[in-house]
Amino acid sequence: NETGDFIELFYDLYGPYPFEDQKYGHCMAPIGGGMEHQTMTTQGSFSKGLTAHELAHQWWGNSVTCASWSDIFINEGFASYSEYVMLENLYPAEKVQHMLDVHDNVLSQTGGSVWFSDTLNENRIFNSRLSYDKGSGIIHSIRYLMNNDSLFFAGLREFQNDFKDSVARGIDFRNKMQEISGINYTPFFEQWYFGEGYPTYSIRWKQSGQDLLLELNHTASKPSVTPTFTNPIDLRFIRQGMSDTLIRFDVAANSQQFYISNFGTLSSTITVDPQNWIINNIGTIIQDNSLVNLNEMNENSTALTIVPNPNNGIFTIGNQKANCWLSVFNMQGKNILNKQLAPNEVIDLQDFGKGTYLLEIKNSENSEAKTLKLISF
Known about the structure:
With 377 residues, the protein is of the alpha+beta class. It has helices spanning 3-14, 48-56, 73-90, 95-107, 122-125, 128-146, 149-162, 170-181, 186-192, 294-299, and strands spanning 25-28, 34-35, 40-43, 64-66, 166-168, 199-208, 211-220, 233-237, 245-249, 255-260, 271-272, 281-287, 305-307, 314-318, 324-330, 335-340, 345-348, 355-363, 369-376.
């Protein structure tokens, strides 16, 4: 009795049922799960999720088919996301737990990409964690980045129309999303479709009167493949005497600071990605009154230069006065290097690893100290 509602929903979101001159039916058989035979799905049971998934394959898999097994995302990622879309529209009370379950499955291991090269490995092709759930999760994230549901689903309908009765690759879908939105999705696909892993977000924050200083850090679960995730992320704040506030932060590095003036007073902790748009883990979220505004430090130290910054651990310090000493601290406050500086001296921190460092440069004559922020990657 539910299948008719599902057909109408997918008709509205994806475009006309691809086989309108025929019908759609179910064949029951003693199998586990289902098989999306064109116009006649075979199923062993009739749960909402399974029925919606197999029906969605009429659009994603039968009408538009993956160009190779490497792009099985076109079939299984979209059919899996259709389970969420069905719940979101027809059974909204169940949608949150569904997406949490999808994310939890992806987070159960640290690596793995949606795209893959080993097309002879059947277990990898139909990997539920990567081809199905991670595929579904990144479609949800693409929708979040677009931030316009009307445009997102219009893009899906255009994609269906462009590739009807044909084959498509993951990058074809990327190109369609870029075309319709004007957003460059190439970095996202490099990190989430071809790349591996996911970010774990941690936050340090300090309240100064009505102003908020926030440091947003993330580590990657598979840094050897994908060291940084540059997708935006939502943070939810609860302030005294005010309603909940949701702010989207643009992420460009593994560690960033944000200063918000006249923010008000936080009355509760900060929540990362409260609407589950991004596959991620949560690390620590702490109030740290020792947090230093690094942007302000850099502004006050314009006479000194670090070139390049960010860098790969090797950089040059310039414009310092004579008889200067350098002290380098990691973000835990540990002093890792002390040395006297020569003019335009090249410094090598590669042995200390990637991260953010504070450089304190002191003049021995008047003990004047300048502090700058360094990012090494």
